Amino acid sequence: MADWLIAILMGIVEGLTEFIPVSSTGHLLLLGHFLGFESTGKTFEIVIQLGALLAIISLYFKKLWHLATRWPFDPEARRFIIGLLVAFLPAVVIGFAAYGFIKQVLFETPAVVCVALIIGGFLLLWLDRMKKMPTYLDADKYPIRIYFLIGLFQCLAMIPGVSRSGATIAGGLLLGTDKRSAAEFSFFLALPTMGAAVAYDLFKNRANLNFDDMGLIVIGFVSAFIAGLAVVKLLLDFVSRRGFAPFAWWRIVVGVAGLIGLALTGGL
Predict the structure, then answer these.
(1) Cβ contacts of residue 147 below 8 Å, gap of 6+?
(2) What pLDDT, in 10s, does the model give residues 68-104?
(3) Computed over its alpha carbons, how large is the radius of gyration of the chain?
(4) From CA 199, how far away is CA 99, in angstroms rounded?
(5) CA distance linking residue 165 with residue 159, whole number of Å
(6) Which of 21, 17, 28, 31 is nearest to 248 (CA)?
(7) What long-range pairs does 197-204 form, CB within 8 A, spacing at least 24?
(8) Collapsed DSSP state (helix, strand, coil) of residue 177
(9) How high is the pLDDT of residue 24?
(10) Can you tell me the distance from the alpha carbon of 61 to that of 188, in angstroms, rounded to the nearest whole number?
């Protein structure tokens, strides 16, 4: 397959999967493995994530601008920003401490991705069928304790295949949030988490970065941005109506298919 087609495909996969509970990292690692695609220093895979991040900023620009300009004298805006930072903090600590193990071991073991996809799929099915009346309906007004605990759940996504959005949404549901607000908070939590992860990854890999294939990076970035826009626009209404079962079954199918592919190619 031509490199530019791979760039478009991986960009679309990044944008489509970043904000739904199926693990964008897991999908990219498996796709890259089976297509034999890996950029020098992971530059391509790192930078295209910014396309998905830009999608969130574009769609929520009005609210983000409100938060940025009103927090000094608006208690509600200030409280939500504090909640985001509290939720983000565990990922900073654990991500920094375990960075080497995550990148050098977990990211290099496709079977881990497949198993995590399958286990996460069954957990999502269980959560989707759980009969529990939500206590918290507004992501702006969760108690600080809930923000922190959701942040702890997010750390599970450092295992590739778990899914950052899936971990935060599942954590929210277990803690008493409704599906829509849990998904929306996951969008906002992606901003500091993904931004910091990309910046730290670029810094750690600065000696190996290779921007010679800038054309492919731009193609992947734009593809991720467009796909991310579509997903974020549609996801909240879809989740409110249909729940997470379709994503759960997708995870299971991809995980099983991945294990079969690895077995057939000697990757297990």
Answers:
(1) 83, 84, 86, 87
(2) 888 888 888 899 999 999 999 999 999 888 877 887 7
(3) 18
(4) 13
(5) 13
(6) 21
(7) 197/49, 197/91, 197/95, 198/46, 198/47, 198/49, 198/50, 198/53, 200/95, 200/96, 200/99, 201/42, 201/46, 202/46, 202/47, 204/99
(8) strand
(9) 83
(10) 11
- 50 φ/ψ sector (left φ>0, alpha ψ -120 to 50, else beta): alpha
Tokens representing 248 are: 């759960």
Tokens of 108: 């290099």
Q: What is residue 136's three-state secondary structure?
A: strand
**Cβ pair 185, 260 in contact under 8 A:** no
Q: Could you identify the residue written with the tokens 């391509």?
A: 44
Beta strand extents in the chain (DSSP E only)? none
| Paired residues of 177 in beta bridges | 136
pTM score of the predicted model: 0.84
Rounded CA-CA distance 33/27 in Å is: 10
pLDDT at 52: 86
pLDDT band at 41 (very low <50, low <70, confident <90, very high): low
Alpha-carbon gap, residue 151 to 126, rounded angstroms = 21
Query: Which residues make beta-bridge pairs with 136?
Result: 177
Domain boundaries, the chain: 3-34+42-264
Residue with token string 């991945």: 258
Residue 56 corresponds to which tokens in the numbers above?
Answer: 């969130």
Q: Phi, psi (5° rounding) for residue 136?
A: -115, 120
